[in-house]
Structure formats: structure tokens, C-alpha cells
Specification:
Length: 223
């Protein structure tokens, strides 16, 4: 009997020691990770005027959840995008193709600029849904709009303001006023214009990313 009690006592002690080592190992590993990982690291939501910034995943508005998207830019031809010039009173004939212009070191414009007086209405270039509002140092006051079906994301930047009452999730129709031309962000004081880009959405959960396409020929209705 004494020998059996000794074996039981030894088993209890071994179990206790193993448990202590496991707990100690957990906290040691956690401390090492804290020491190894850099502190103060942060990521920001992307802005097409500054595409090198790493985006933080954002929830997709519920109204957009069922929208299907193409896998790549190859799908553009499967559904033509009918656009109008997104600035009221501006003729397509007067547009300049600034899509391939350089915007700083190793950064392409991937958009066109449409000059207009401050406060000129910015209108929805196509039917769709307001996906997101975002204010940033590069883009200023901006609007992200998804086309019907979610194939394309349209980006309007440097706005003076958004239209009163406009909300994320609102359905908009082509020609509806959604904002006003401004010079916010890095446009430069007095350089009133709309920065307008179009991209093919690759992932509906990251609708702000995609394959940029040149909106100039779409607005000019060039073949």
C-alpha cells in the first residue's frame, strides 16, 4: 500500500509539473511575439490616388452582398459599361485623356481629371449603389460607387462636398447629383476638378481594389 501511495503521489506531482511548464511556455511564447513584432504598426484604407497604401479589410454593405463580380479585367467585354461625363455641363468632346500621366515616382494616374468651377454638380456616371464614403489626405472628400451588378467600382475624388442626404447603400441613377467639384485632398488650392476612375472589381469583399480601366474612351464613346 505505501508503494501504491508513492506511485500516486508521483503521478500527481508529474502532472502538476507538466501543467506548469505548459502554462509557462505559453506566456513565454506570447512575450517573445510581443518583443519581436514591431510596435505601432498600422495599415490604412487605400485611396486610388495613392495606390501604394495597404488597405484594411472593410465590411461589405448588406445591400452589396449579393452582387456578383468578374474574376478579372477580361470580363469587361461581357457587359458594356454605359457612362456619361460625371460633371454637369461638361461635354465629352472637351475631355483630356490623363489616364497614363505620371503622378509621382512609380505611380500612374489610372484616372482622368475633369476641370470645372468649384461647386459644379458631380453626377453619377452610371446607375448603381453608393458603396462607401472616405476622406483622405490624397483624395480629399470621395465617393465610391458600384455599378449595377457590382462589376465596376467608380471613384469620385477631390469633392467640395457630397450631396445632402446621400448615404452609403443608396441606389443612384445615371445623372443624379451625388456631390460637388472641389479641390480637397492633394488637388492643390484652387485646382478645382474631379478625379474620376473606373476599375473592374476582382473581389466583392474588397470592392475598392480592382483592375483599372481607362474611362476616357468610355466617356467619349470611342469604338
Amino acid at each position: 500500500m505505501p508503494f501504491e501511495k508513492f506511485k500516486l503521489r508521483r503521478a500527481v506531482i508529474l502532472t502538476y509539473l507538466i501543467g506548469v511548464h505548459i502554462i509557462a511556455g505559453y506566456f513565454l511564447a506570447k512575450e517573445l511575439l510581443i518583443r519581436v513584432l514591431p510596435s505601432g504598426t498600422s495599415v490604412s484604407v487605400p485611396d486610388p490616388t495613392f495606390p501604394t497604401v495597404a488597405p484594411t479589410p472593410l465590411p461589405v454593405p448588406s445591400i452589396l452582398a449579393d452582387m456578383s463580380t468578374p474574376a478579372s479585367a477580361d470580363s469587361v467585354g461581357s457587359g458594356p459599361l454605359d457612362l456619361i461625363v460625371p460633371v454637369s455641363g461638361v461635354s465629352a468632346v472637351g475631355l483630356l485623356d490623363t489616364y497614363n500621366e505620371s503622378r509621382g515616382e512609380d505611380r500612374a494616374h489610372d484616372a482622368i481629371d475633369i476641370p470645372a468651377p468649384a461647386g459644379t454638380p458631380v453626377i453619377a456616371a452610371t446607375d448603381g449603389v453608393i458603396a462607401r464614403f472616405f476622406d483622405s489626405v490624397p483624395g480629399g472628400i470621395t465617393i465610391y460607387q458600384l455599378s449595377n451588378g457590382g462589376k465596376y467600382v467608380l471613384y469620385y475624388a477631390h469633392l467640395q462636398s457630397r450631396a445632402d442626404g446621400l448615404k452609403v447603400g443608396d441606389k443612384v441613377v445615371q445623372g443624379q447629383t451625388i456631390g460637388y467639384v472641389g479641390d480637397t485632398g492633394n488637388a492643390g488650392p484652387g485646382n478645382f476638378h474631379l478625379h474620376f476612375s473606373v476599375a473592374v472589381v476582382r473581389d466583392p469583399a474588397r470592392y475598392w481594389e480592382g483592375d483599372y480601366i481607362n474611362p476616357y474612351p468610355l466617356l467619349r464613346k470611342d469604338p
